[in-house]
Design a protein that fits this description.
- It comes from Dyella acidisoli.
- This protein is of the alpha+beta class.
- The protein has a single domain, classed as Roll (2,3-Dihydroxybiphenyl 1,2-Dioxygenase, domain 1).
- The chain contains two helices and eight strands; from the N terminus they run βαββββαβββ.
- Strands 2-3-4-1-5-8-7-6 form an eight-stranded mixed β-sheet.
- The radius of gyration is 15 Å and the shape is elongated.
């Protein structure tokens, strides 16, 4: 049985030039910072929430929510996806699909 995937409003980018990026999104684009943490700032953009995270750069990461992360992960791996990064403490499971899109799967709580 397929997991029911639905997108969240979250898009994450990661950069080593974190302070410069935060300044850019605040000052140049005029986005409101709605969440601040150590090494991560969330900006409200209207249609999605952009998170800028401190760390080694990678392209934008979208998020899909599922009722059971482990079942969805197994299904995606069987379909040719590969784990890019995983951290159970966050929790975070970044996967790359066979077509190059990197996304996170998180729990929808349903």
């Amino acid at each position: 049985m397929s997991a029911m995937f639905r997108s969240s409003r979250d898009v994450i980018i990661r950069t080593e030039a974190w302070a410069d990026a935060v300044n850019f999104y605040t000052s140049v684009l005029g986005l409101a910072a709605v969440q601040r943490g150590e090494g991560m700032v969330g900006f409200e953009t209207g249609e999605f929430r952009l998170y800028v995270e401190k760390g080694a750069a990678h392209g934008p990461v979208f998020e899909f929510l599922v009722p059971d992360v482990q079942a969805a992960k197994a299904q995606l791996l069987a379909a040719g996806c590969e784990v890019v990064e995983e951290d159970a403490q966050l929790p975070r499971c970044y996967l790359r699909d066979p077509y190059g899109l990197i996304f996170n799967i998180g729990t929808s709580g349903t």
